[in-house]
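Lecture notes, unit on protein representations.

Consider one protein chain, 488 amino acids long.
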Amino acid sequence: MQSPREVDEETPLLQADVQHKSPKATRTPLPWRQFSILLLLQLSEPLTVQVIAPFLPQLIRDVGITHGDDSSIGYYVGLMHSLFFVTEACTIFHWSRVSDQIGRKPVLMTGLFGLSISMYCFGLSNTFWGLVLSRCLNGALNGNIGIMKSMVAEITDPTNIAQACSVMPLAWFFGTTIGPLIGGLLEHPAEKFPAIFGNSTFFKTYPYFLPCSVSATFAAISWFIAYFFLQETTKPQMSPKDFFLGRKSNPQGPDEGLPAPIGNDVHCDTIEGQLPLRKLLVPSVLIASGCYAFFALTDMAMRTVLPVYFAIPVEMGGLGLDPSAIGTILALFGFTNGVCLSLFFAPLHDRMGPKNLYLIGTLLYIPAIALFPVTSWAARERGLDSLVWTLVGSQMICCVSASFSFSVTFIYINAAAPNRASIGATNGLAQMMVSVMRAFGPACANSAFSLSIQKHVMGGYFVYWMMVAMVAITFVIGLFLPKKPWKV
């Protein structure tokens, strides 16, 4: 009899699982009840991130930090976006490791609480430093993205994880759809809806509180949904109280304290030991995380430059749109993203393979970037006519097609996890790298945008060449991905 192949701590988790499955194994149904709850909870982060995008340039003007110099708006818009991810990068790996100890649910609820409080604070801030502190609090208390990805990996198996990956980003794209729409429509409610808010001194003093409070309230409602309906997906090693009091965990038997089976009886096998950080730094994890991180860098640079580009006057290289128009465009972008992902990701993944889909998606950012100066030139020459809007639509289509690569990276990261006891740590490591890049991307891209305008570096196109360089690095790292994540 042939002995089973040895599996050690460096053997990718899902690869090891696949080799013991029949090639004709049927697809396990997704546990839709718990999976749907996770999708709903995931919506909180894109809402809080994107709701400020349409009005942030105007908010920066209002707090007076630019002293009337519109060319420096990009610096501060980039800083606001970056602060969230800087503080998240400092804490997210810690939160992920904590979730391996005390369970996913307590950490997830802490993140939702942090999102809610920080967004209420952001809406009540009318000074630059108040905005800074609110964004830092927002990022520091939030480790939810890595936690949710760990939970999805724990309630799926190799037969249905690709299906989960095609659905999971819908929450993000839905959030990026309604977030800008809420921000663009509800800012300055006393002016836009005088019949309802015209006599409100509060909304005249805090004109951005209403959109912020919508996202904050949603996060608060999500907290209660998680508390009452979300099931734990891993075996806690200790209670939250024991962890924060520094008490040692009591060893439990292999069946003691396991969470209730979820849907298809999938839960984390925590008999395996949690690995130290150095054991996570294996090539499969580093390559998959690197692809995710650098693609996120490019994507975040694009997403933060777009609203500034739309807001800057035409004569300065932008399109001169108001917050409502910017919010509508970004909302349509997010909606189209979600629809296309749900319809086309699975067939494209099966036909092209994950690696080719990732590489082609990355390259599609090149024409999207090239359309920035082309659209700006058309706006200066012709005004905001049908040609300009056609070019904006073409740019959005390129960005939508490129975003398929995000779902691919999720598959690779979970396939590379060394063992099930370190799923949280692996996703936390990947998310930490992404948070660093997302912190670097907005500040770097928007600062380069302002520098291009002020100093006319490289003919005013320095920011676009820098973004092309980001795409090139992302593409090169993607070449190291295996063609099939599950192949032994």
